[in-house]
Every structure is written in structure tokens, then in C-alpha cells.
Design brief:
Layout (H helix, E strand, L loop, with lengths): L10 E4 L2 E4 L2 E4 L13 E6 L7 E6 L4 E7 L2 E6 L4 E6 L4 E5 L4 E5 L6 E6 L8 E2 L2 H8 L1
Antiparallel strand pairs: 1-9, 2-3, 4-11, 5-10, 5-12, 6-9, 6-11, 7-8, 7-10
The protein binds dTDP-4-keto-6-deoxyglucose (T46).
DTDP-4-keto-6-deoxyglucose (T46) binds next to strand 4, strand 5 and strand 10.
Amino acid sequence: MMSTLESLRCSIIHLPRIGDYRGNLSFIEGGRHIPFDIRRVYYIYDVPAGESRGGHAHRQVHQVMLALSGSFDILLDNGIEKTKITLNTPYIGLYIPNLVWREIVNFSTGAVLMVLASEYYDENDYIRDYREFRNSVL
Ligand code: T46
């Protein structure tokens, strides 16, 4: 069943954008724009055509995703409801809390996905088996 971002506990984050004849500038300030303390930043780029990323959920980690360049689709699933959002604007981010299954697909050429995360990298935080995910949220 397709649903809304809000019912999956996800939300859009609008970052500041300062534009003038030289182009645009956006910024992210800790404690102001992101609903958690940022412990890690990573970015995904040079994704070959047709490849996808993600395909898992996190037990604890909250994240904000941004399309710094290009575009991609994010498929979201809380075990019951699903939705899809396209990110293609560098000053609009998507907040994804823990226990939401995500897959990122349809990367455009040159797309750069930047992720702000609430925790350091820990493989034990990942739920990579969909049945285990369903069992942990239902
Ligand atoms: C997510 C999507 C959008 C690290 O060493 N440190 C890190 O911070 C991360 C994120 C990954 N890694 C290592 C772990 C693997 O050996 O990089 C390799 C690829 O990671 P993974 O297969 O998890 O990559 P994606 O693109 O499937 O998923 C990542 C994030 O893990 C995930 O949280 O939402 O990007």
C-alpha cells in the first residue's frame, strides 16, 4: 500500500539557500537543521546505471539524505506501508528514522547522495534480512 512520508515517520527538511549572480550556497548547522547530533557524514557517487544502494533498515541510526547533484529515487517501507520520493534538489533533504527499510534506485548520471547519520558506522546496526525487519516492526 502506498503511503505518505509522515506515516512512515519520515519528513522533508528544507535547508537555507542563498543565491546571487555567483550561484547558490546552502548550509547545515548542527543542532538547527538536523533532528539529531551528526556523528558521521558519507557520500555515494559514480553509481553505475541500473545499480541500487541500501536494501536494509537500521536498528538505531537516523539519517538525512541529500542529492548534492543529480537525482535518485528513495523507496521507503515501514513493514506495512511503502512510499517513494525523488530527491533532485541540493537544499531539500529527507529525514529517515530508524526501523525504516530503504532502497535507493534510479541514480542519474553524476548523482551524488550525501548522508548525515546519527551514529558511527556499526555493521551490527543493520537489518539486512527483510523477514527479520518485518518481524522486528510488526
Ligand atoms: C544507507 C545507504 C544510503 C563504512 O565503512 N562506513 C560507512 O559509514 C558506510 C555507510 C559504509 N561503510 C562500508 C561498509 C561496506 O563495506 O562501505 C561498504 C558499503 O556499505 P553498504 O553496503 O552499507 O552501502 P549501501 O550504499 O548499500 O548503504 C549505505 C548505508 O550503509 C546505508 O545506511 O542508507 O548507503
